[in-house]
Specification:
By secondary structure, the protein is an alpha/beta fold. Helices cover 24% and strands 28% of the residues. Keywords: ATP-binding, Carbohydrate metabolism, Glycogen biosynthesis, Glycogen metabolism, Nucleotide-binding, Nucleotidyltransferase, Transferase.
Length: 423
C-alpha cells in the first residue's frame, strides 16, 4: 500500500542513499555510552539503522553510503557483517565513511552537511544522478521511489520528507510552513506556535530529516556552505533554511510513500531517541496487532542474522513454569522456570527460575537471576541481574539505583549494578 507509479526505469536506480549515522544519541544516556544511536538494537533482532538501509534496498537503490563518527565500532562491525552483500560487478556499492579528515587534517565532520561535503569525491566516483540524505536513527518503512518521483515532477531544488504531527507535539521538531501546492514557504526550528497544514487545523508538517537533491546542485550548495565562515555546516540549521528562502523547496507527505501492510492502518514513524520512546516502541511490538508490522514479507527489514538455536522454555511446575505471554522471544533465549509478560527479549537472553518479568526490553546476552522481579525496564546488553533483584515496585529506590525516567522506565546497565554491589 503506497503511492508508487510504474516507470520503465525507476529513478531509484540512478540514486544514492547517503545515511547520516554519526550522532551521539545523548538522550539515550548509557545506552549510547559504547555505541552510536543507529547501532542500538531494536525489535529483537535489528539495529535502528537497518530500517533506513532496508528502505533504500527495498526501494531499488543500489548505491549506499553511511557516514559514521562517534563511537562507531559497533556500528561499523554490524554494517560489515550485515550489509556487505553489495557487488561492484552488479553496479552496486556500499561504502562506510568514517570521519577521516579527508578535506582538513584538523576537522572531523563539523555537521551533517560537512559529513557529505567531505566525501564529494567518493560520491562523484559512483556517479548518481540523485542523492537522498537519510537519518540513520528512525523506525519506519518508506518507498523512496515515490519521494524521488515527486522531486522530479515538481522540479524542486530540494524535497523534504515530512510527517504529520499534532500541533502540540510539533514544538519539538523542525516544522515546514507550506502553501496549497506543498511549496515550503518557511522553515521553523522548534517553533512555539507551529503553523498548521493548509486546510488541516491542528496538524503540522515536521521534518523527518530526509532530503532529496540532484547531485550537481547539492555539490554546488555544499561547496558554498563550506566556504561560509558563519555556517555550522548543518542541513537543518543552514542548508535547508537557505533553500527555503532562496530556492524551490517542496514538502513530501510521508503518508504518500509509507509502506503499510493490511495490518497497519496508520503511517508509522518513530524517533526512538529517548529511553521512554525506545522502551515504548519496542514494547508496542508485543501488542496483539502492533502498529508496526514486522511480519510483512513484502517489505523485509534486512540485517545480520546470527546462527542461534531456537528459543527454549523449560520447567512446568507451579511457581516454576517457563512461559511467555504477549511477548517476543528471540533465538538462543532460555526461559527456565520464569514468567514473562509483555516483554521483548533479544538474542541469547537467559531468564532463570522463579523470576517474574513484565514490560521489559532485554538486550542480547543478558542473564536474569533467580527470584528477580522486574517491571518497566530496559536492560543493556550482557547485564547480569543478581538473584532476587526487584525493580519497578519502589520508585524512589529505583531512582536511587538506576536511571529512572519521568514515565517510570528504568534503564539498567552493568556499571550501575557493579556500583550497587560495592556500595
Amino acid at each position: 500500500m503506497n503511492g508508487r507509479t510504474e516507470r520503465t526505469t525507476p529513478l531509484s536506480r540512478s540514486a544514492m542513499a547517503y545515511v547520516l549515522a554519526g550522532g551521539r544519541g545523548s538522550r539515550l544516556h548509557e545506552l549510547t555510552d559504547r555505541r552510536a544511536k543507529p547501532a542500538v538494537q531494536f525489535g529483537g533482532k535489528w539495529r535502528i539503522i537497518d530500517f533506513a538501509l532496508s528502505n533504500a534496498l527495498n526501494s531499488g537503490i543500489r548505491h549506499i553510503g553511511v557516514a559514521t563518527q562517534y563511537k562507531a565500532h559497533s556500528l561499523i562491525r554490524h554494517l560489515q557483517l550485515g550489509w556487505a552483500f553489495f557487488r561492484r560487478e552488479r553496479n552496486e556499492s556500499f561504502d562506510i565513511l568514517p570521519a577521516s579528515q579527508r578535506i582538513s587534517e584538523q576537522n572531523w565532520y563539523l555537521g551533517t552537511a560537512d559529513a557529505v561535503y567531505q566525501n564529494i569525491d567518493i560520491i562523484e566516483s559512483i556517479g548518481p544522478e540523485y542523492i537522498i540524505i537519510l537519518a540513520g536513527d528512525h523506525i519506519y518503512k518508506m518507498d523512496y521511489e515515490v519521494l524521488l518521483q515527486q522531486h522530479v515532477a515538481q522540479q524542486a531544488d530540494v524535497t523534504i520528507a515530512c510527517v504529520e504531527v499534532p500541533l502540540a507535539d510539533a514544538r519539538g521538531f523542525g516544522v515546514m510552513h507550506v502553501d496549497e501546492s506543498d511549496r515550503i514557504i518557511d522553515f521553523l526550528e522548534k517553533p512555539a506556535n507551529p503553523p498548521p497544514i493548509p486546510g488541516r487545523e491542528g496538524v503540522a508538517l515536521a521534518s523527518m530529516g530526509i532530503y532529496v537533491f540532484q547531485r550537481d546542485f547539492l555539490f554546488d550548495v555544499l561547496r558554498r556552505d563550506a566556504d561560509d565562515p558563519h555556517s555550522k555546516h548543518d542541513f537543518g540549521g543552514d542548508i535547508i533554511p537557505a533553500l527555503v528562502r532562496e530556492g524551490r523547496a517542496c514538502a513530501h507527505h510521508f503518508a504518500r510513500s509509507c509502506v503499510r501492510s493490511a495490518q497497519e492502518p496508520e503511517p508509522y514513524w518513530r524517533d526512538v531517541g529517548t529511553i521512554d520512546a525506545y522502551w515504548e516502541a519496542n514494547i508496542d511490538l508485543t501488542d496483539f496487532v502492533p502498529a508496526l508490522d514486522i511480519y510483512d514479507r513484502t517489505w523485509p527489514i534486512w540485517t545480520h542474522t546470527e546462527g542461534t538455536p531456537p528459543a527454549k522454555f523449560i520447567h512446568d511446575e507451579e511457581g516454576r513454569r517457563g512461559q511467555a505471554i504477549s511477548s517476543l522471544v528471540s533465538g538462543g533465549c532460555i526461559v527456565s522456570g520464569a514468567s514473562l509478560r509483555r516483554s521483548l527479549l533479544f538474542t541469547g537472553v537467559r531468564v532463570n527460575s522463579f523470576s517474574q518479568v513484565s514490560d521489559a526490553v532485554i538486550l542480547p546476552g543478558a542473564d536474569i537471576g533467580r527470584h528477580a522481579r522486574l517491571a518497566n525496564v530496559v536492560i543493556d546488553r550482557g547485564v547480569r541481574i543478581p538473584e532476587g533483584l526487584v525493580v519497578g515496585e519502589d520508585p524512589e529506590d529505583d531512582a536511587r539505583r538506576f536511571r529512572r525516567t519521568a514515565q517510570g522506565v528504568c534503564l539498567i546497565t552493568q556499571p550501575m549494578l557493579d556500583r550497587l554491589m560495592t556500595a
